[in-house]
Amino acid sequence: GYDRGHMAPAGDFKGSEEAMEATFMMSNVCPQDHQLNKGAWNDLEMLVRSWARRDKKLVIYTGPIYNDKKRPEKIQRSRDKNKGRVAIPDAFYKVIYAPTARPARAIAFILPNRPCEDDLKTYVVTVDDVERMTGIDFLHSLPQDRQKQLQATSNTAIWFNSRQ
Question: Which residues are catalytic?
Answer without folding.
Answer: 6
